Amino acid sequence: MESPLARFDRLLRDEGFALLAGLDEAGRGCLAGPVVAAAVILRAGTNLPDVDDSKQLTPRDRAAQAVLVRERAFAIGVGFVGPRTIDSINIRQASLLAMRRALRRARVRVASDPSHNALGLLALVDGNDLPGGAGCPERAVIGGDAKSQAIAAASIIAKTVRDGFMVRLGAEFPDYGFESHKGYGTPEHLAALERHGACRWHRFSYAPVAQLSLFPA
Description:
Layout: H1 4-13, E1 19-26, E2 35-43, H2 59-72, E3 75-81, H3 83-89, H4 91-112, E4 121-126, E5 138-141, H5 149-172, H6 178-181, H7 187-196, H8 207-210
Parallel strand pairs: 1-4, 4-5
Antiparallel strand pairs: 1-2, 2-3
Helix pairs in contact: 2-5, 3-4
């Protein structure tokens, strides 16, 4: 049975696009770690009935859906932008840069397909900003991770990839508890900043870090 999110995408394909690339990011509001974007390209007829906005899924369900997305997607690309670049160009621009990187990597698969010249590709971006430079039409979809199957799939990939990265970062920097809060400004994280100062993965342009006059350890 076709899900409402798959129906939203099908109506866009009826405009003549054989492939849809959903783009979304994770980690925009964190005090530490990279911002991570994913681009998930889906063919016509792909139906992922349990795919939903990653924020609405439990970690276990998110992990299970990430496996299905990776199995059924035509192509997936992931883009990382680290904290020093975030500090330099601001999080909005860093998120768009991560999306451009993700889509560029996903499009490598499209270009390698023998029939790629016949494949129309539309990029659907969660939010109201367009990254630009996609090499294909782009369309912003406000609240897209709850409307479009392709964007919801991208939200799941971005979130699970970033969470996995922060778990590994937690093992490298055990004083901060990155594996539990994933870099968000929880009371646990703020207390760790007070005790230990910032590490190189913190975003010094973010007020809770900057206001503590912290420097990299």
